[in-house]
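Postdoc handover notes: sequence design on the structure in folder B. Input tokens:
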């Protein structure tokens, strides 16, 4: 039977549509959901009865400012609608908070019911002056218990939409939901999202990364900002090192999801990764670089001197290039290695593959491959 070009194209498109529909149906079978509207008072009761759990690895990211907290409480008092929260239901019916940490923690803290990571009740928060023209100026410095009964009940009875990931959904679905809700324009950095996901699935691996982050030759030469220190930037660098060192040839686009997928494959035992071999190589690599360069290790070299903050491009190329050639590098004196690293930072093949668009596939692969070759001699 003969088909015209247009008919062939339509047949191909129709097959692709059917395939997409099949994939959607299969993926939807992985998650079961429900929707409920309950009050913040009911949420507080669930939390007190341990029927709503906030895991410690999520709790540490409760860092709204006093102004943000006040504005949210004001929103509830003024009757503004609030976004939905997401919870995951276990086989006993207990809920675990997946998304909505800042909002729920703010209400619980204001009510004087929020516990810290050790289970101790935190002091109840107070409302502050939240702007030049606050809508509730008389409420400044008041706690929940100091509000009128009417105001307290308006908070307790305010509604909150709860999206429930039901028991029977695909294992680890709650972590996929958390990742999707907290990446791209999120308040959490990619490494903080990874930490939450992977700590819950494999705390030993996360603890291992944390221990590497404390290795003096690595830690002492990062010169991180206060924000970077508070958002696990150091641990993100370690995972970046392992990912690029071991799997850069697989990179397509977007470094952060690439790192997340690399670690996920390790934890799901879909990728070989021997910690007993990786750890000594990691320590040897950063000891050699640290001894030679000190705090200049990860800074650019321009106009005859090191300048600027840590550059991830310098970090990933120098660290993986040295690791790839560690036997040779270990034989060099500190002075020779320092001169070699400074020379590398001035090479056009490195410089031209950084800057704007540096994480497109061609540039990333080019600079990593160049580093591997450069440090062979």
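Designed sequence:
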């Amino acid at each position: 039977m003969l088909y015209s070009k247009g008919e062939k194209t339509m047949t191909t498109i129709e097959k692709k549509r059917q395939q997409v529909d099949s994939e959607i149906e299969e993926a939807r079978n992985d998650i079961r959901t429900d929707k409920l509207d309950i009050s913040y008072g009911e949420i507080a009761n669930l939390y007190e009865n341990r029927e709503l759990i906030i895991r410690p690895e999520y709790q540490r990211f409760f860092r709204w400012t006093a102004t943000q907290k006040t504005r949210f409480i004001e929103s509830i008092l003024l009757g503004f609608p609030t976004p939905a929260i997401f919870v995951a239901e276990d086989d006993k019916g207990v809920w675990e908070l997946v998304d909505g940490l800042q909002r729920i923690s703010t209400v619980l803290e204001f009510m004087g019911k929020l516990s810290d990571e050790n289970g101790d009740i935190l002091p109840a928060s107070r409302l502050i002056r939240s702007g030049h023209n606050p809508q509730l100026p008389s409420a400044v410095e008041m706690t929940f218990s100091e509000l009128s009964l009417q105001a307290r009940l308006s908070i307790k009875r305010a509604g909150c939409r709860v999206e429930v990931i039901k028991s029977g959904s695909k294992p680890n679905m709650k972590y996929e939901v958390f990742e999707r809700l907290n990446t791209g324009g999120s308040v959490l950095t990619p490494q903080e999202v990874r930490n939450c996901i992977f700590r819950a699935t494999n705390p030993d691996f996360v603890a291992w990364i944390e221990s590497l982050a404390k290795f003096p030759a690595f830690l002492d030469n990062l010169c991180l900002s206060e924000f970077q220190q508070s958002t696990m930037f150091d641990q993100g660098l370690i995972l970046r090192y392992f990912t690029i060192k071991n799997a850069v040839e697989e990179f397509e686009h977007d470094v952060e999801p690439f790192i997340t997928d690399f670690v996920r494959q390790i934890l799901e035992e879909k990728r070989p990764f021997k910690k007993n071999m990786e750890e000594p190589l990691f320590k040897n690599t950063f000891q050699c670089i640290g001894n030679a360069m000190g705090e200049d290790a990860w800074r650019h070299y321009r106009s005859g001197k090191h300048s600027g903050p840590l550059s991830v491009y310098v970090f990933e190329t120098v660290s993986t290039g040295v690791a790839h050639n560690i036997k040779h590098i270990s034989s060099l004196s500190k002075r020779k290695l320092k001169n070699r690293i400074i020379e590398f930072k001035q090479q056009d093949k490195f410089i031209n593959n950084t800057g704007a668009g540096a994480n497109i596939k061609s540039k990333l692969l080019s600079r990593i491959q160049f580093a591997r070759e450069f440090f062979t001699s």
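Context for whoever picks this up: The chain has a mean pLDDT of 87. Don't rerun without checking with the PI first.
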